[in-house]
Amino acid sequence: MDQLDVSESFDVHEYRHGLKLLKDDRGTMTLSNRQGFACPACGNEFETLFISEKRTNTFGDPGSPFCLVRTDDQLLVLTH
């Protein structure tokens, strides 16, 4: 199982073959994990990836466990 590389900045285009775009708004993107990629925080497979370049975000109840990963310019929220 490949793990998302967030060692510097996360480039979604490197993983587009295994991620399905669900929503793309100004500064945010939501994708589903079709390839079985591993979470860079915990190492387990994740279901959904939310990427934000915005300084503030509001989240509802994801209904499942989640992990947070911060790069220099992005916040990644991965639900399991």
Question: How would you describe this structure in keywords?
Answer:
mainly beta; about 80 residues; Flagella cluster protein; DUF7385
Fold and architecture overview:
The chain is mostly beta strands and 80 residues long. It has one domain (13-79). It has strands spanning 19-25, 28-33, 48-52, 66-70, 75-79. The chain has a five-stranded antiparallel β-sheet, with no helix packed on it.
Short description:
The protein has one domain (13-79). Helices cover 0% and strands 35% of the residues.
Strand content: 35-45%
Poorly predicted residue ranges? none
Given the helix and strand composition, which structural class is it?
mainly beta
- Order of strands side by side in the largest beta sheet? 1-2-3-5-4
Q: What spatial form do the alpha-carbon principal axes imply?
A: globular
Oligomer: single chain
Largest sheet: 5 strands, antiparallel
Distance between the termini: 15 Å
- Tell me the series of helices and strands, N- to C-terminal: EEEEE
Task: Please tell me the total number of domains.
Answer: 1
The total of beta strands comes to 5
Number of helices: 0
The percent of residues in helical segments reads under 10%
Rg (C-alpha, Å): 12 Å
Average pLDDT taken over every residue: 92
Present the secondary structure layout.
Elements: E1 19-25, E2 28-33, E3 48-52, E4 66-70, E5 75-79
InterPro entries: DUF7385
Protein name: Flagella cluster protein
